[in-house]
Amino acid sequence: LVSIAVTVVYSKGPVFVEELEQLVENEEKKTELRKLAEDMSMIRSEKAMQLDTILSELPEDVQHEYKKKVDEENTKMRSELMSQKTQADKWGYPDILAKIMAIHSDMSISDSHAEKLEEELMESLTPHQKQYYDEFRAGSEGVEEDSTCETSFAVTILLSICVFIFC
To answer: Which UniProt keywords apply (predicted)?
Structure first.
């Protein structure tokens, strides 16, 4: 069985709200961040500006720890992307990976619009590709997830961070 796994770090979008929420102890700020994380209709660039405002009001040690977490996430994402790109090139799916990454990095859309675009892209897959994608998605729902994301089905689906395509 020859397979390609195009795992896309998509869920959080390009704005890392949950990472900051985990570091904040102030309940008011936590609530503000939770609302921001759950707002799937807010344009990502607006969300990033609000996140930056909240971050600037926090102690320097929290800002530093947040930057460290974001840097770690970005390093992990780059590494995964390089592996995915190699596999996508090898098996002839670089266009799918490129489209998913474009959706992921588009700051001019909301998370809900990004999810809709991803769903439209998935509709363009062959029945065989869809079967493996659906099996993966069903299997990923049983994976232990961050408790901060349990309040929203859309965030939960997105937190699975993946699109697997097998051929």
So the answer is: Cell projection, Cilium, Flagellum
- How many Cβ atoms sit within 10 Å of the Cβ of residue 131? 12
**Each residue's pLDDT tens digit, 118-153:** 888 888 877 766 665 555 445 434 433 333 333 233
Distance, in Å, from the CA atom of 149 to the CA atom of 18, rounded to the nearest integer, reads 8
Measured CA to CA, the distance from residue 155 to residue 149 in angstroms comes to 6
Cβ contact 21:34 at 8 Å:
yes
Residue from 6, 4, 5 nearest 104 by CA? 6
pTM of the model: 0.65
Q: Contact, 31 vs 65, CB < 8 A?
A: no
In a domain, 22, yes or no: yes
- Nearest-angstrom CA–CA distance, 127 and 114: 22
Name residue 89's amino acid.
D
- In angstroms, the Cα distances linking 166 to 13, 57, 103, 131 are 24, 45, 21, 9
Q: What is the DSSP string of 10-33?
A: -TTTT--HHHHHHH---HHHHHHH
Structural domains of the chain, count:
1
In tens, the pLDDT along 74-83 reads 999 888 888 8
